[in-house]
Request: fold
Amino acid sequence: MILDIYSFSTLTASINKELHAAMAPWLAVLTEFVLIGLLFLLFYAILGLFLVYLERKVCAVMQNRIGPNRVGKWGIFQTIADFIKLITKELIPIKNADDFLFNLAPFIVIITSFMVMAALPFAKGLQALDFNIGIFYIIAVSSLGVVGILIAGWSSNSKYSLIGAMRSGAQVVSYELSVGLSLLAIVVFSGSMQLSTIVESQANGWWIFKGHIPALIAFVIYLIASTAEINRGPFDLAEAESELTAGFHTEYSGIKFAFFFLAEYINMFIVAAIAATLFFGGWMPLHIDHWEAFNRVMDYIPSIIWFFGKTFFIIYLIMWFKWTFPRLRIDQLLNLEWKYLLPLSLLNIVLISFVVLMGWYF
Amino acid sequence: MKNSEELKTFLADLIPFATIEEGKQHLEIVVPLDKWHETAQKLRNNDRTPFDYLISLTAVDYLTKFMVVYHLEAASTHELVVVKAEVENRDKPQIDTVSDIWVTAEFHEREVFDLFGIRFNNHPDLRRLFLDEGYGFPLRKDFKDEINIIELSN
Amino acid sequence: MSDEVIKNIIVREDEDYIINMGPQHPSTHGVLRLEVCLNGETVNYLTPHIGYIHRSIEKMCESDTYKQIIHLSDRMDYLSSHMNNEAICLAVENALEVEVPLRVKYIRVALDELSRIASHHLWWSAFGMDLGALTAFFYGMRDREKILAIFEESFGSRLLHSFNTPGGLMHDVHPNFQKHIMEFVHYFRKKLPEYKQLLTDNVIFHNRTKGIGNMTRETAIAFGVTGPSGRGSGFSCDVRKTAPYGLYDEIKFNEILHDKGDSFARYLVRMEEMEESLNILEYVADNIPEGDFTAKMKPIVKLPEGEYFQRVETARGELSVYIVSDGKKFPYRIKFRSPNFSNLFVLNTLAKGGLIADLVAISGSLDLVIPDIDR
Reply:
């Protein structure tokens, strides 16, 4: 069992208790909302800056370069400098653009990524919303981001943007299916859609080990499909810079561009976090049945470190293949989904149901 | 160049109206202007050496006349001939296009039209290639541009 | 003539969805504008618009001496600047019947092949980038740097060396020239497998290039597509073989020919050409004889009256220079038949019916250098 000293539930419960003691119940809940909102906002900003820095360093390693190394030691303040540059840049108005939608689009994109974050279990007892339909909520909300991209492409009054947006629409709608089906695999295994229950169900081993072959298939499909869903290389057709200059955000500048940019990185984090939670046990330490001593040692590592460790490992995987593969073509991309991934994940669901029915998993 | 005598006699049979002479490097054929299109077709579609690769197409301004120069190679045997056609009328220079024979000529002819002002009859898309409409023809020897060209005295 | 202004306006259908790729666009590699008419993502037709970087080099040459022209020719295909120089030098040397020292011939071949590899490096980098493999760019540049260091050591310049002069070379090469070439040959032989891992064997890369932009041998000849692009279609057009110049008739090397004619074939031709160039370099660097670095030439070169035609093989295809001399120190007319000018216009034929992504893959595989098109 995970050590209670690393659990955040006592901390959150005591804050809750204090607040309720100090003020009226509705005011206490409102204060909690505001506090959590602020906390997420802060986390969001720090995470965005860190991910951009990480990507630049990882890509530099892949490309025999050093990467950012001027601003601060090892260039750690580089992204902050970039961010300041982006805020101070002029927001260029576009002639004949639909102003309302043009300005709305970045917010839609960034709000959806914000909303998904609420359901993620970061550590034991550290989760803003613990639905009983957590996975369903995540799938539903995360696919709203494409609306923002479509609006951005449509309202920019630019042909490159429009092509990028259309590509993105086709891509996200297609790959949504595979993402959903591969997540369904774990739902079948654990028998619950609630993220905290799924994590608890991995106390005696992560699903990627317990579920052996079908879980592995589901994980690979999830990794491919989710990378496509967040428009990252080698599936970055929506912003294929050698074809469409910058795709749907060609016309955006300054902070509005930064919103798209940030949302893309946060989405990468979310995708990795979901994979870590469902396949790699989330904040659950590595436990192996009947190895009591080993399990005790693993328990001494705080749950929040487990969660972020796993998440960043998957982020590294995603970055790795972005920086090694060429980009697919749009028809090949759709072929991959409809002809290979989707039938495979449907078969996989049947296989998993069978495995679960026969009890052939650990 | 080997076989050049043989090629010369063959060409003399093929295009009797042209003057063929041994140049410093290659065979040089001078073709009368009105027979040019027919000659081009014969050079391209003959059984011995079809000159199917148009290396270069250009013109030279001799102040009294234009000389349109074609460098042709047979892609199979790598024999090279230089074909020239004189355009005497300098005010309204015209020559038949060969873009229907060698596709690449379409763009080389556009370049020559752009820089020399030689019209190519029956050309499918004779527009200026580099310069604006109404600009002069800079590779003509009498082209004057007082702003951009600084004349050097010999 | 000038009073008759020709207006030729392209009339379009209402449904045509035109996008302008360029003059500033990441995949046109310079100031080329492609007017692409799309149907969805499919290319209906495209019209190249050129002339954004036209410097009228041919006109400028008419008031320059032959030694000055060398420096202008660098600026056409800046990646094959050595070959461009050599074309003029050879034309002048042939016209004056000057015999250049053997050492010069060897060094020229070495530089030819070094430039060819460096140019193919840049093409490989940029082609990878066109297809979205950004890492390829840095691998290519890393190895190109080694060649540029050799150039810099000997000529003091990295890109536009203007190192040739009629009759020989500007000055002798650096004493380490041979040693560094051999070092590079060994180094690059070791690095070539990385190229294979990163792009050549990649499945996505195969999907993106195989069967894309099919060019038959007839099309290649009709459009005058030369160089690796032409040889990918089985058009034997390597001037080093068909009209040998310099030392090329004495050196043993293979002309690389592929007959598929798609983007991948053009890719393979260039990759194999790099290996072939390494072999030539190995032979040449071992055998550079001692001797003068230039033949005796008059300070001002005057060509006898007549016409001279010289062809060389640059990294992109056949460059021919056609000089008309009237016996003065300036050429009467000089014409550069640049390989890219002919190679560009086949793009419409190849890209028609494909997707935008294919268009990028095709134009990347043709390896266009825009200043060479415009001159």
Remarks:
- Chains A and B do not touch (no CB pair under 8 Å).
- Chain A has a mean pLDDT of 83.
- Residues 47 and 266 of chain A are 7 Å apart (CA to CA).
- Chain A has one domain: 4-358.
